[in-house]
């Protein structure tokens, strides 16, 4: 806590007027437990620190690297140069390293773990860069101060997601953009079901060994409730194959993505673990011995989000009843378009 406060105090003292940070008295690194507290945020920070100080930490970043590249590609589709951008939960710079001066003038890289920030890769030298420790549940930015906020694979560990979405929207300027990617839906469903079946068999019950993920259909409703407009949501699935369940769990630990549920069990029984590995192989492993695709699959379902803060300059939908073509005639759309062209000429 004291280390973070010293960093932020120094940053605020030396910051340029463009860097909008709230008063230090309003900042907290961890919120008090509430009925919405699902994850142990302190444990998650420790897990990230352990992963970051490992010498081979870069080996385990292949999923975040791929998603960061795909998210940056969506950024390039927005034909605008942003003055001030926040990379929230920047990790090792999975998105930031793709940013150029053509898109961003000034970048604030944020993460909850200082050790990760120390290893984060910067964008090209022309972009001004600042790095600060920030808790995603308590954003320190002033309202109407940021042009673009990016978030890559970190919001799935947030307890109060509606509050974080609202804080992001409030921090944006009018017509500002939120561009995010998060794990959701059926992520790691194979591992979850295997551990549950093994728990029933060996331990006589189910324990929360895999983080719950937000349902895809709920994210749009949460963003709309937060006040975002012109929402764009799409999903993608990454299926990675591993020799066995043990390699998958080892890689998750190396990513800093191991279990951080508040009511998680302290240990995984050895018999339960071996039983889960056998169930995983039996249910999801490749049964074709002649196939080149061996091992077990692990599904990572990624939800990409684009939301805009409302502004009068944004396009508005037409009023209800103003349409000239009925949805029931969609099969004859080509004929209708040709007829409209004849009428206009």
TrEMBL record:
InterPro entries on file: Malonyl-ACP_OMT, Methyltransf_11, SAM-dependent_MTases_sf
Highest taxon above the source species: Eukaryota
Positions of the Methyltransferase type domain: 86-179
Pfam families, A to Z: Methyltransf_11
Gene Ontology terms describing biological process: methylation; mitochondrial respiratory chain complex I assembly
Protein name: Arginine-hydroxylase NDUFAF5, mitochondrial
One GO CC annotation: mitochondrion
GO molecular function ontology, one term from the record: S-adenosylmethionine-dependent methyltransferase activity
Keywords: Methyltransferase, Transferase
């Amino acid at each position: 806590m004291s280390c973070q406060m010293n960093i932020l105090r120094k940053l605020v003292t030396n910051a340029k007027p463009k860097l909008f940070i709230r008063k230090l008295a309003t900042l907290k690194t961890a919120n008090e437990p509430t009925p919405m507290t699902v994850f142990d945020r302190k444990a998650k920070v420790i897990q990230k620190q352990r992963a970051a100080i490992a010498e081979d930490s870069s080996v385990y970043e292949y999923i975040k690297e791929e998603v960061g590249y795909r998210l940056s590609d969506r950024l390039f589709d927005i034909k605008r140069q942003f003055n001030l951008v926040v990379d929230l939960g920047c990790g090792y710079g999975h998105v930031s390293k793709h940013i150029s001066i053509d898109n961003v003038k000034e970048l604030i890289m944020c993460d909850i773990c200082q050790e990760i920030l120390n290893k984060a890769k910067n964008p090209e030298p022309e972009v001004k860069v600042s790095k600060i420790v920030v808790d995603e549940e308590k954003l320190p930015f002033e309202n109407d101060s940021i042009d673009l906020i990016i978030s890559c694979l970190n919001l799935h560990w947030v307890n109060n997601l509606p509050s974080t979405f609202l804080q992001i929207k409030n921090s944006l300027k009018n017509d500002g953009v939120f561009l995010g990617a998060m794990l959701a839906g059926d992520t790691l469903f194979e591992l979850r079901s295997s551990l549950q079946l093994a728990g029933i068999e060996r331990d006589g019950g189910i324990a929360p060994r895999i983080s719950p993920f937000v349902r895809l259909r709920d994210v749009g409703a949460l963003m709309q409730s937060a006040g975002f407009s012109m929402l764009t949501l799409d999903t993608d699935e990454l299926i990675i194959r591993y020799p066995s369940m043990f390699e998958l769990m080892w890689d998750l630990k190396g990513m800093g993505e191991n279990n951080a549920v508040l009511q998680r069990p302290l240990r995984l029984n050895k018999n339960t673990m071996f039983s889960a590995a056998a169930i995983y192989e039996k249910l999801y492993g490749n049964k074709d011995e002649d196939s080149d695709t061996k091992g077990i699959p692990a599904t990572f379902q990624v939800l990409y989000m684009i939301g805009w803060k409302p502004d009068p300059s944004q396009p508005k939908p037409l009023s209800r009843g103003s349409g000239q073509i009925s949805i029931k005639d969609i099969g004859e759309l080509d004929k209708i378009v040709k007829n409209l062209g004849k009428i206009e000429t």
